[in-house]
């Protein structure tokens, strides 16, 4: 089994990593100090069989992590608090619940439980299980090691700034390590259009258009000459 260890405590990760390295059922393991870092890894490396997951992590706890990931990996929760046991077993993917400090004997019992746990039967078409993100009005972005939910229709402007993008809503701005190309894949809406190599705008938020710029709220956004015809087609002109 391939496993990952998700825990903000370095010592806790080190203990599990050491136990995993001597267990013959585990072929490899990686460590992550936050749920967000682990999610990024899972997005590009989905073939993980087992996750050791701490419940208490700053900004993004273990239960948030479980509800966010799209993975078939089995999960062993690790925590210093016994009071989450009932809540933990509401999730089919959780096979065991380890209370710190973890002993080698208890670790090995958890591994056996993971091996014995049968996968949940799934008679649906695999595509039916994929989240329909294209129709959702929520976008989660990574800001300061937290996943922040943004209501997509409230986005007014998205501006490229080097290796980052600035997402402007009517209430707040968010700086995110991403690209315009990547965010376009997550906001498939008719009302978003790229008007410049550095700007995506929400056409519902346009106040006026003058020459080669648009006014959105108090932001003056340039329009590339090549993008202007497409913008004009998208507007409801009288």
How would you portray this structure in words?
This protein is of the alpha/beta class. The protein has two domains: 2-121, Rossmann fold (3-Layer(aba) Sandwich), CATH 3.40.50; 136-234, OB fold (Dihydrolipoamide Acetyltransferase, E2P) (Beta Barrel). Helix content is 24%, strand content 33%. The protein is built from seven helices and 15 strands. The chain has helices spanning 10-21, 35-44, 62-68, 85-88, 104-116, 180-184, 228-234, and strands at 2-6, 28-32, 50-54, 74-79, 94-99, 138-143, 146-151, 155-161, 164-169, 173-176, 192-196, 199-202, 206-210, 213-216, 219-222. Strand 14 (213-216) and strand 15 form a beta hairpin. Residues 120-135 have low confidence and may be disordered.
Beta-strand residue percentage: 25-35%
Strand adjacency order, main sheet = 2-1-3-4-5
Structural class call reads alpha/beta
Main pleated-sheet profile:
5 strands, parallel
Q: Any idea what the radius of gyration is? A: 23 Å
Principal-axes shape call: elongated
**Average pLDDT taken over every residue:** 85
Q: Which superfamily, in CATH terms, is the homologous superfamily of the largest domain?
A: Response regulator
Helix content: 10-25%
CATH topology-level name of the largest domain: Rossmann fold
Q: Sketch the topology as an H/E string, one letter per element.
A: EHEHEHEHEHEEEEEHEEEEEH
Number of self-contained structural domains: 2
